[in-house]
Amino acid sequence: MPTILRAILRTGLVIILLMTAATATLPWILSADWVRQRFLQAVNNQIAGSIEIEKISLSWLSGQQMTGIIVRDPEGVIVVEVPSLTAETSVWSLLSSNPSLGHIELQSPKVSIVEQTEGITTLQLAFGVISKGHETLTDSSHTVKIEPPILDQAQDTPSDPNALVKEHGPHHPAPLFGSFSLIDGDIKVTRADGSIYRLHQITLSVALEGTSDLPTHLIFEFQCKGLSERSKQGTVVLAGEITNITDRNGHLSSDQVDLKATATLTDVRVMELIALLRLPADQQEKVAAIVGNTLNLAAKTTYSQGVTTLILDYQGDNSTASGSAVHTGGVLKLSKDIVATMTVNPTLSRLVLKDINPLLLTAVRAERPIHVRVQAEGFAIPTNPISLATVTIPRATLDFGKVTLTNGGTVQEILSLLQAQDVTVNSEMNTWLTPQHTALDKGSVTISRMDILLADKFHLATWGGVNLIKDRMKFTIGLTSQALKKAFGLKHIQPDQWLQIEVKGSPSKPKVDTGKALVQIGQLLGQESTGDIGELIGELLQATGSDPLNRKVPPPTQQPFPWESDQALMKTLAQPGDPVAPSQKVQKKPDPVKNTEDYLKKKGKEFLKRL
Q1: What is the rounded CA–CA span in Å between residue 348 and residue 291?
Q2: Which H or E run contains 114?
């Protein structure tokens, strides 16, 4: 018996030692090349592309490591390359009752994705879950049939997400807590249209924390440099935290989750950002004209119980803006006024300002930036879906100040009508403007009266509206009695008499109704002169119909006018008969009525010929 007992004990001890040795050497066995190759073969049989791992190093008590990780698409082109992936956690920790991932780190990963014409990327092609025994690629399009993973059909999934909790109690698998970091990453994306964007020097950190059995807190931070293939200019930083991720049953809960996040963009190239965001082609040039070449932006957002807040402070080469908003119930509203500035330039005028006022189509620069204020009260943008037809902006004020215009477009037509022969085509002129108040409702912009001193000579005013959806405008340019006196030397015109000119068509190609304007000028000149011009006026009135000179004019939004502070300029604007101080007497000018008659005859005959 003692001999048999010793044999049994010896055998048991050997088995225990063998099991201990096997267990102790299991990570080493799993790290062996032949095991790694079998593992990769099994994985590669399930995807269209292929995965390579140069070395796997596992350990019971220390960290884990994989090196030389490569993912290829079905054509064998490298899509993902990771020199090193390490995990500080041990295998023993992963198998414990409270597993922890510790810290996982990716060193210098590189991703190069190409978008196919069908919208499928090479990364999708590489990881298509398919069987190698079936045809997966069709002709030259390289379309992959992606099979969804087959769930365990023996397990019934209840329609009530809380059913399992009710049946089995609130117990669930313990979550894996830990942190993740990516260092010096690089992502390159080549789109189907040939455009390329690239994120350089990417760093990413994510940490998941919580109680012993529930994840409750996620912290993240992302940073990269440059947004294009060749440039590393500009830095993008995104950071934030998410709390109350799950409810007490371990389910994701959008009702209880809280989010705090910040975004900081420093010296980012605008065109690179536009390419990354894939803005529509008709919007790209507008954004670039408004913002400029580079921008700096600081944004902060929070989300709690269905309410999102946003605070924004932005500075571009050509503009600045700051404001705050709140989104709730599917509607975005302002919590305080938006305050912004825009620097006038020819591109901004051609693409943006012409929608605000047709005379601004030829603006080339300004004495100072345009000051913009958007009123918070009543501001509303429904976001489900976003549509220009549902946006409401009760009041936005644009203060232009003193602007330089070129003699072209609508400005040229007005100056031609006013006989401003001293202003040559394409020459520049100083123009003063009062603030303009606008409102947007159902896609239509209503524009209040804006008074203008054109070329330091002619006092005009504009008002009207633009339908942004239909790209149509209905505008009025009013020539004051001062402008008419200056242009035609009229003596009997009343201060409240205006010549109102209609402007219609597209904001980019406005059409000025000079025909009616000529008739109105004829009516005024008829009060000043006699002779054969009266016959011409009669023909004009018969052809176009009379348009009263005393139509109602909106009141000015600002008085005194900004140019009235310039005493030297005011002297040049003084008209014969105006009360002036003895030291400010205006030299008498020759009566221009005869020249005006010749002008009207010529213009009138041209107009009748067109009819």
Answers
A1: 10
A2: strand 110-114
Structure tokens given for 466: 């633009």
Least confident of 283-287, 300-304, 433-437, 549-553: 549-553
* Dihedral angle, C-alpha 361, 364, 369, 373, nearest 10 °: 0
H helix or E strand, kind and range, residue 450: strand 444-454
The upper half-sphere exposure of residue 360, i.e. CA atoms within 13 Å in the direction of its Cβ, equals 30
And the tokens for 139? 């002709």
H or E segment and range at residue 312: strand 307-316
Alpha carbons 223 and 362: distance in angstroms, whole number: 42
Contact assessment for residue 297 and residue 313, using Cβ atoms and an 8 Å cutoff: yes
Whether 497 and 481 have beta carbons less than 8 Å apart is answered as: yes
CA–chain centroid gap for 172, Å, is 43
The SS3 of residue 333 is strand
> Helices in 45-169 by DSSP H: which ranges?
91-94, 122-126, 163-168
Dist. CA 114–CA 96, nearest whole Å:
42
Render the burial of 521-557: b for 16+ CB within 10 Å, e for the rest: bbbbbeebeeeebeebbebbeeebeebebeeebeeeb
Rounded CA separation 422/299 (Å): 51
Q: What is the mean pLDDT of residues 409-418?
A: 86
Q: Which residue has the tokens 């102790």?
A: 24
Distance CA 357, CA 370 (A): 14
Q: What is the pLDDT of residue 29?
A: 63
Q: Does residue 202 contact residue 184 with C-beta atoms inside 8 Å?
A: yes
Strand pairing category for 307-316 and 381-382: unpaired
Minimum mean pLDDT range among 166-175, 343-352, 436-445: 166-175
Given pLDDT bands bounded at 50, 70 and 90, which one contains residue 15?
low
Whether pTM exceeds 0.90: no
The answer to whether the beta carbons of residues 425 and 385 sit under 8 Å apart is: no
With 70 as the cut, is the pLDDT of residue 487 above it? yes
Cis peptide, bond prior to residue 560, ω within 30 of zero: yes
Q: What is the DSSP letter of 386?
A: B
Q: Distance between CA 430 and CA 420 in Å, rounded? A: 14
What's the mean pLDDT in 383-398?
93
Cβ neighbours of residue 564 closer than 8 Å, sequence gap 6 or more = 570
543-571 pLDDT tens trace: 555 544 667 899 998 889 999 988 888 88
- Calpha distance 106→65 (Å, rounded): 10
Which pLDDT value is given to residue 237?
A: 97
What is the helix (H) or strand (E) element at residue 323, kind and residue range? strand 319-328
- According to DSSP, the β-strands at 235-243 and 215-225 are antiparallel
Provide the pLDDT for residue 140. Answer: 37
Instruction: Determine the Cα–Cα distance for residues 215 and 176; give it in Å rounded to an integer.
Output: 8
What torsion do the CA atoms of 328, 330, 336, 342 make, to the nearest 10 degrees?
Answer: 150
Residues 449 and 554 sit within 8 Å (Cβ to Cβ): yes
Q: State how far the Cα of 70 lies from the Cα of 85, in Å rounded to an integer.
A: 12
**What does the alpha-carbon distance between residue 459 and residue 483 come to, in Å, rounded to a whole number?**
5
